[in-house]
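Input record, target 12 of the design panel.
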């Protein structure tokens, strides 16, 4: 996992959330999916950082 993957997913979230705010209900589903991906990427990064700290 890389920082760039996280940044890219945040950009996708931003676009989908803006669509959702304009009334596109389907974009809300895509925004939630993007948030789930961000959560997983963040957790993976946390584990990598912790592993690097310990070694």
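The sequence produced for target 12 reads:
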């Amino acid at each position: 996992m890389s920082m760039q993957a996280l940044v890219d997913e945040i950009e996708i979230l931003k676009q989908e959330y803006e669509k959702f705010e304009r009334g596109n209900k389907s974009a809300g589903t895509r925004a939630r999916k993007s948030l789930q991906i961000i959560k997983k990427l963040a957790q993976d990064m946390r584990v990598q950082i912790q592993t690097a700290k310990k070694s």
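The chain is about 90% helix and 0% strand.
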